[in-house]
Amino acid sequence: MEKTNLLRYVDRHLPDFAAAGSPERLPQGNLNYVWRVPGEGGSIIVKHAPPYVASDPEVDLDPNRLLFELRSLQVLSPRGPLAEVSRPDVRPPEPLYADPHNHVLVMEDLGDVPPLGRWIQERSGEEMERVETAGRRLGAFIGRLHRITLGDDRLAEAFDNRAMQETRQAVQYEAATDLLRRGGVDDAEALGRRVQSLGKVLRRPGRCLTMGDLWPPSVLVTGDGLRVIDWELAHYGQPLQDLAHWDAHLWMLAHRGDAPTAEAAGVLRDAFWTAYRAAIGSAADRLWTDAMGERASIHFGAEILVRTVGRFQAGYLYDGLDPDDEPVQEAVATAAAAIRNPRSKLEIRRER
């Protein structure tokens, strides 16, 4: 959807909304094209899913991914069947309009607020309490999501987001051997086979509803709390995919940040895990096993690889660095170690 016809589209499909200015393309869009449209009573967000990754058109991507985001926002809304997962201080945005035929989703605008990664980079030592609060809120939210949806056959059918898992398999897990070679890892073939096996496991029927893309840019910090956005990868899958994904991105944020950022990432991570464990309670044995912990360690490494020497390096923490550059080599070594010697603990602790 181009800027020139976006206003016509909004005027045709949202007759109660009166645009009051030119649409603004938001830079946060990675998988999709995202626009903010100002209105007389407040602005709205319009998201369009092309049949490819918006930031990398060479990667095909099922445009029906917005249906899974819409379902997520609906079931987690105050009127949805999973309303108890959300809280006023941590929730997804409210959906306003959906056009499945044209792969368009309209939702509330949360305002010009920072994503969590940028927010903690701006925290000083005196604000660690606010960082800890953010970690507790998010950990409890994800814990409730996993526990409440555990073993729900109806959700398993509604959130069988296989197309996105297959894309992940192709771009991330199947590519692992080449990424490890690019990073100069000697045992790239053996480690790559482990990652490929993980991808196959993650395509099997899952245990609970997962957010699917839990990283700092998917969490916005507003004056009223946290808002969890970008649910296109939501899938009835394995909790390890959320948890290891989160751990990998906090490790990278600390690795590329200054000392205060590294401290904040550590505080955020510890608070998240404490709240997550409390939220899953007696369901822990069903949500996590030693084998799942080892697989989480492998995903931890695979996510670092795709962000440092893979397709999703651009626009992120290692943007513009060559495989031989020291920060990339350090990150690749951490990723390879996690795949080579996977740990089974719930908390995946790694030294910087």
Describe the protein in words.
The chain has helices spanning 3-13, 65-75, 116-121, 128-148, 153-158, 162-173, 176-182, 188-201, 239-256, 259-280, 284-287, 290-308, 326-340; strands at residues 24-25, 33-37, 44-48, 52-53, 56-60, 90-91, 95-99, 104-108, 208-210, 219-222, 225-228, 235-237. The protein has a five-stranded antiparallel sheet with strand order 1-2-3-8-7, sandwiched between helices. The protein is built from 13 helices and twelve strands. The relative contact order is 0.13. Helices cover 47% and strands 13% of the residues. The longest helix is centred in the last third of the chain and has 22 residues, at 259-280. The chain is α+β, with helices and mostly antiparallel strands. The protein has one domain (3-340): Aminoglycoside 3'-phosphotransferase, Chain: A, domain 2 (Alpha-Beta Complex), CATH 3.90.1200.10. It is globular, with a radius of gyration of 20 Å.
Could you give a quick summary of the protein structure above?
The protein has 352 residues and is of the alpha+beta class. 47% of the residues lie in helices and 13% in strands.
